[in-house]
Amino acid sequence: MLSFDQNKLLIASHNEGKISEFRELLNFSDLCIVSSKELGLIEPIEDGNTFEANALIKAKSGCELSGLTTLSDDSGLEVDALGGDPGIYSARWAGPDKDFDYAMKEVNRLLEEKKIAEEKRTARFICALCLYRTNGDYLFFVGKVEGKIVWPPRGNYGFGYDAIFKPDDRFETFGELTSTEKHSWSREKIGLSHRARAFDKFVKFLINTEN
Ligand code: IMP
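^ thats the input. predicted complex w/ inosinic acid below
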């Protein structure tokens, strides 16, 4: 198993939801999890052009400021008929008030405007995790889940764009699936989500790597 300085892993995030999800996911290990928020680290400007580039900016900054091995993530929704939008701008489409009802309506409005048929509303959630080590080495673990945009929104679980994303091979949207089905992780069963899939790759790397 990969070893860590002081047995600590920094989660480069100020988002409480994300931090607690990572803590839960890393329950199986004896790692001490700390976050940028707890350490009061400044947030870097995310001006990369890809999910990986933004994850790298966050992980590098967290590692350099804390001196700890750092894990970050960047994620979002890509809609094919919108040229991949909202993509890396998924959070920004909701504006400063984080109004995801508005952002979901905007996705639907643009699909309607372009007269995109239901079966052509293909989309995917992507999550890029970046592990940045104190020697400057870094690695990405990317998870994707393919699906379609549906309208109207369905379900009260989850967050962000969950209520308009229906993963392939399921009748329910992410908003109708429980958090266990959506993004839990155990050695026996991996949740459906992009984050659970990326996390699975990260855990396999942790377990199979010495130093
Ligand atoms: P980040 O915190 O910069 O990675 O922003 C990710 C944004 O993508 C979030 O604010 C959500 O809008 C969207 N997003 C990412 N993952 C999910 C998900 O699992 N469900 C719904 N929306 C998501």
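The beta strands are 8-11, 32-35, 70-79, 122-132, 138-149, 165-167.
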